[in-house]
Amino acid sequence: MNNYVPPFTITNIMLDRISSIMKKIGKMDNYKELNKMPVLRRNNRIKSIHSSLAIEANSLSFDQVKDIINGKVVAGPKNEIQEVQNAYNAYLKMKEVNPYSIIDLKKIHGVLTYLTVEDSGNFRKGGEGVFDEDGNCIFVCPPPEQVDLLMNQLFDWMKNNKDKIHPLILSSIFHYEFLFIHPFRDGNGRTARLWQNVILSHWETLFEYVPIESEIKKYQEDYYNIIQNCNSKGESTEFIEFMLKMIDEVLDTLIEGVNIQINHISIYVKKLLDVMDFEVRYTTTELMELLNMKSRNSFRENYLAPAIENGVVKMTFPNNPTSKNQTYYKD
Hints:
Layout: H1 12-31, H2 38-55, H3 62-69, H4 78-92, H5 102-112, E1 129-131, E2 137-140, H6 147-161, H7 167-181, H8 188-203, H9 212-218, H10 220-233, H11 237-264, H12 267-275, H13 284-291, H14 296-309, E3 313-315, E4 328-330
Antiparallel strand pairs: 1-2, 3-4
Helix pairs in contact: 1-11, 2-3, 2-4, 2-9, 4-5, 5-8, 6-7, 7-8, 7-11, 9-11, 10-11, 12-14
């Protein structure tokens, strides 16, 4: 049993999808502008959180989720608001955790389900099943006494194969196997989707801001049907193909968004960003000197104002734009 291998088959469909995904990642690498697009990155993060929670029947809208994350007061079910706050805190920790650590997985589940789920951060002690909309049990999860063994086998397999199996495939296998084991009393879907992103972002940092969850939400019925099909067949091939399709398609959307923002940000804004260092506060005079500019009006109209509007430059005192102590920094 220590040599357990999740049953799946590598198919031409998978290989074609991986080839397509790698080409799109290459395009994103060539841009390098995603690091200069905090608004786009933040919106993608919000899309991930909203979509993953919506799949689990959280009723809050995208705008409500965005407002909660921005610290605004939102009218809605208390537990759903808590779920948003939890998810945001969990996604912030993506780069801090080890994708091959069960201890870190439990910690993330604890953050995701804080104040909303009993036994948060701990594997379940009772039996669980998956039910359809009519209340019929369509899948009986492994008994609780097997959960520790099954999770250790899964993580041992991942650690032993992380350099042998492509991360796109390995992360999808994890996603399916985790849902099959259903190790927690609740929050398994949210955790599985987040942890696939954890695995992928440790391989390619781009995936920290790729909202795969939003694509899954579009195909939610297929998502559940394919999981059920794989449960019946006893192997995850169809689910892997499905997840590669989700990743492939969401990268198209991401590339389109990057292109739009690149075209929207003027050459003047790009020049301004090029002369600014991160974590340095600049006065208007200092920035004009760096750009060798004389006209304050031209600087504000063509450089500074558009940069602030696009969210790539921030004010130290945003609530007092005309402050004599105002400085600017690159976000």
